[in-house]
Predict the structure.
Amino acid sequence: MVSEQVLTTFELYKNYSMAKASPKKSRSILTDSSFSFFKNYINNASPVGFETSGQKLWLEYLKPYVDTSFTDPYGTAVGVVNPKAPFKVVIEAHADEISWFVNYVNPEGLLYLKRNGGVDVQIAPAQRVIIHGKKGPVKAVFGWPAIHTRLSNPDHKEPQPKLDNVFLDCGARNKKEVEQLGIHIGAVVTYQDGFDEIANDYYIGRAFDNRVGGYMIAEVARLLKQNNKKLPYGLYVVNAVQEEIGLRGAEMIARRIKPDIAIVTDVTHDTTTPMISKLVEGEIACRKGPSLAYAPAIHNKLLSFVEDIAAKKRIPVQWRALSRSTGTDTDSFAYSNDGCPSVLISIPLRYMHTTVEMLHRDDIENTIKLMYETLLGLTPKTNLNYF
Ligand SMILES: [Zn+2]
């Protein structure tokens, strides 16, 4: 039997987290049902190259708000408003999450891994994971020697986590037991951590990079539909696969759609936490609005169009300078076909590529608003000519 005190604490905690986990601002543009889609979407695994289950969830949510939808051979999903219009505008996010591949099984049944996207080896030890095997999901952990035993190695140095010393323990004690669980070479591995929220409307989760983007573009489509807005062009709401291994899904879909304009959203670093140099990374903070960037791939006229919209609608923005590459799907769209005017609207995020990625609700809302208002302002006649 559980003590009274423990029970009370538990009940309090339960109510507290339930109350916090739903949208509560009356002026919020997010609804309870859209927010619960967001949580489900984050909690579902969507590893690079294996995004289909996430794409299905996303399309199911999006479909009521678009006229038609399609998918491409590698799983990029697209919802279209006004499919017959000759002028095409894309709003885009990427659907994939960084993950691992099982690469080698040792005789003791421990699994060594290869990276599938930019997973961070430094944060791996002691994390819980799911191995997506042929017989369904299998739980495992990144084992790591106890603090008591680490220094008994011959050179008395603390081991640093590296690709050749981090391993998974799934409870199997030889290769055969590994096989019996349905685990195979090439099985993909994701972290178990899911959506949660902490004080002051901050959310934490794994792979907000960039499924928050998928959520935000879907919300833009929902708001357009629910507010009965008519657009003078075809709108393509694109959730691209395989961004984390080189912007590949966007590359494919840009060629297929041949858009006239692309508005890309992704996450960017909040640089105000310790051990990040603002001198190098610039200054961006959560809760201060979406970030706009200058870069050769970002179309100057389209950028100043978005800047004007932000000023008119009083949406706060923060500025960055990027260089040769934005490191986002913006590059794939900008340099596709004969060149496509593209702009990047980023949401600030703390602790990128960890299991505790953190972002703020206000930034989600303001990023949605900025995309939404930009779409309402654009027409096929918007002058984007440099000369
Ligand atoms: Zn990423």
Observations:
- Residues 5 and 11 are 10 Å apart (CA to CA).
- The pocket of zinc ion is lined by residues 209, 244, 353 (CB under 6 Å).
- The chain is about 30% helix and 25% strand.
